[in-house]
Amino acid sequence: MHTTRRISRRTLLKATGAAAGAVGIATATGAGPAHAAGGTFAHPGLLHTGADLARMASKVKAGAAPYTAGYAKLTANRHAQSGWRPNPQPVVYRGAGSPQNYAVLYNDLHAAYQNALRYHVSGEAAHADTAVAILNAWSAKLSSLQGSADRFLAAGLYGYQATNAAELVRTHPDFALSRFQEMLTKVFSPLSDDFLVHHNNAVVTNYWTNWDLAAMACVLATGIFCDDRAQVARAVDYFKHGAGLGSIKNAIPVVYDDGLGEWLEAGRDQGHALLGVGLMGTFCEMAWNQGIDLYGYDDSRFLKGAQYVAKWAMGGGVPYTANTRRKGAIGGWSGSETAGAAASVDPAMTRPIWAMIANHYTKRRGLSATYLTRIAAKSAPEGGGGDYGPNSGGYDQLGFGTLAFTRDRTPRAAAPAPSSAAPSTTPASGAVSAPPSGSDLAATGSGEVVGWAAAAGITSVAGGLLLLRRRAGGRS
Q1: pLDDT tens across 224-280, in order?
Q2: pLDDT tens, 406-415?
Q3: How far is the C-alpha of 194 from the C-alpha of 216, rounded, in Å?
Q4: 331 — alpha (psi -120 to 50), left (phi > 0) or beta?
Q5: How far is residue 361's CA from residue 305's CA, in Å, rounded to a whole number?
Q6: What are the DSSP calls for 169-218, one per residue?
Q7: Could you count the other beta carbons within 10 Å of the beta carbon of residue 164?
Q8: d(CA 252, CA 7)
Q9: Are 189 and 215 in contact (CB under 8 A)?
Q10: N- to C-terminal Cα distance for the chain?
Q11: CA 382/CA 388 separation, integer angstroms
């Protein structure tokens, strides 16, 4: 039995090393995004490459700060223990009107991810075996995600998390890779793909930025994991040109002269704004590891938005241009609401989202990012699911960025053009099924103290409100 486990570990390390050869050089030197070899995607190549995993292990072994503090947060988490036992369900429900059991899923997925990450740092095979057992149990049983509109959040959030956990053990000899890919492509990604096309039969601006970003993260992650170039292309194209509020120019609709970019959901509340920034960072990091530079897209627009949120979340004053958006169902009830100022914040509120973003811009790219640097230091060492409260919001990010994303500064260099493995960003023409008739919308009615933003470009400012124009081809 002991020999089998050593072979299991060696198999994983060999695969990780091979991937590092394909994708690790660019990542380690900071020369630009990693490249997948040939016409397939690089594996491991979602949030962590082979080079990333090797760096974590070597730094912890050497006792280097702050990696040791980050690793201590991981080993102290109850989800990161090899004794974790999964509780798979055939149907997962999220949202009103259903027997909600989605907490079972996200707790198991965080346990799988944390055990897999701990394995790669420590080399203890029991943690890899635990991660595999959790993921295999779910792929053998889960058949559907159901509930209210929140089922789309479940698909997006837990789809990208499940995929990242699986990516860390995809070469384990006991991992049921094909079955897991089948679960992703039949249970998770269809819901996320459908949401980006139909938005639950609502007007495209009905759903806040983080709804789109969760779906985008799922579509991108599952596309990479399943080597589906068309799916990855759809996700990347949506980031650049999507009609919904998760696309980059709708999520960050205004860039000010001081270099800060207004984050749309700052007009809503702090928690959802942090969620959105974390999801966009996750999306950019996964794309980067496949040779697609979205961190730098549109003159590093995401940097400007992340800096804005970092300053605001620490209690700093930020400008806010009033904005209005439509809400409601297509062909049904409708309305609009306006946000006129950034919401109040609690500077003590934190989420494990900052290390990844700050390290990319300041260490990989050598750019100045004062607010990101400050908030990342304030938030360190970052933990993960289970360290930020018992509710679902504490499990929206996988976390452990101090361990996983701390980097040595490297010479600044422009990102090279994507390799042949990076897909075209022309959307695929495959049909996506419409949502069932009578499907509910999210609970975003006028009773909430929230603001609404425009789906498309800004033509001018008049009377304190933005005059809006509809993006060509977008929903009205």
Answers
A1: 999 999 999 999 999 999 999 999 999 999 999 999 999 999 999 999 999 999 999
A2: 999 876 545 5
A3: 11
A4: left
A5: 13
A6: TTT-TT--HHHHHHHIIIIIHHHHHHHHHHGGGB-TTSS-HHHHHHHHHH
A7: 25
A8: 48
A9: no
A10: 62
A11: 10
